[in-house]
Design brief:
23% strand, globular, seven-stranded mixed sheet, three-stranded antiparallel sheet, alpha/beta
Length: 267
């Protein structure tokens, strides 16, 4: 195969065959980066059998009225106010992105939610790329959420999360704290790079849809309050929630910036 040069947007993953100052998809400036990709020759890989072109079978689609959604009914997060702004809680197979400044309380809140889901005997897995298992247990004890159905992993490999999702009894909830700390062997770059964040998120979202596990990704924010990483990450998930407030204050604000299952801008 021949190689050709394409330009990929670092913000949204959009493609262009020629360099532009502005991404044609998300309209961000100076974000296109040159990449080499294999170019399929004319007739691209279509096998000929006995002189005739072999055409692979394609799915014909499914009647929506026949789709079973009984296993996709929302279940409670364990926090009534969060249930309200998410429209009845967590949806099986859905992906949520929680953003907020460092130290605002994202990890504390999500460990509480994981503990509440585990207490309802649904099974919850908290994967941390930043804390040890000892640190997680100490925080869980302080929050009084320890229980037999609350599992934890301390790892920077997305493979560990995928293995847990492929187990016979996959957890109902997977919390990944944070998506910028995980690494996929199928992508290049350091943890937190555009290519790694895109690969990790894609693999986790697809695996959770197959296992009907609710996925919660923790995302860091930049100095100007925007979620760090490629904009594609926000497009890949179903719901984006921002945790806001002052560290010295006792209260926090949860703001829904995007929600495929209900209204956004709920607070």
């Amino acid at each position: 195969m021949r190689q050709r040069e394409v330009y990929i947007c670092a913000e949204c993953g959009g493609r262009s065959l020629q360099w532009r100052g502005q991404c044609p998809v998300c309209r961000a400036w100076n974000t296109l980066e040159a990449k080499q990709e294999a170019q399929t020759p004319p007739g691209g890989g279509k096998a000929r059998v006995g002189g005739a072109r072999a055409v692979s079978s394609a799915p014909e689609g499914m009647r929506l009225v026949e789709v079973n959604i009984q296993n996709e009914k929302p279940y409670s997060t364990g926090l009534a106010s969060l249930d309200a702004i998410l429209c009845n809680g967590f949806v099986p197979g859905a992906a949520l992105l929680f953003g907020g400044e460092p130290g605002i309380g994202k990890s504390t809140l999500l460990l509480q939610l994981a503990g509440a889901v585990a207490a309802a005997e649904r099974g919850a897995l908290y994967l941390s790329g930043e804390e040890s298992l000892g640190q997680l247990k100490s925080r869980a004890e302080r929050l009084k959420v320890l229980g037999p159905d609350l599992l934890a992993l301390s790892s920077n490999s997305v493979e560990d999360a995928l293995t847990a999702l492929e187990a016979p009894h996959a957890p109902a909830l997977l919390v990944v704290d944070s998506v910028q700390t995980l690494v996929s062997p199928r992508a290049e770059g350091l943890p937190g790079s555009v290519s790694q964040v895109r690969a990790v998120a894609t693999e986790l979202v697809e695996a959770c849809k197959r296992s009907q596990t609710t996925l919660v990704l923790v995302g860091h924010v930049t100095k100007d309050g925007q979620l760090a990483g490629p904009k594609l990450l926000e497009h890949m998930v179903d719901t984006v929630v921002s945790l806001e407030g002052e560290r010295g204050q006792a209260f926090r604000i949860l703001r829904v910036l995007k929600n495929r299952f209900g209204p956004n801008q709920e607070v």
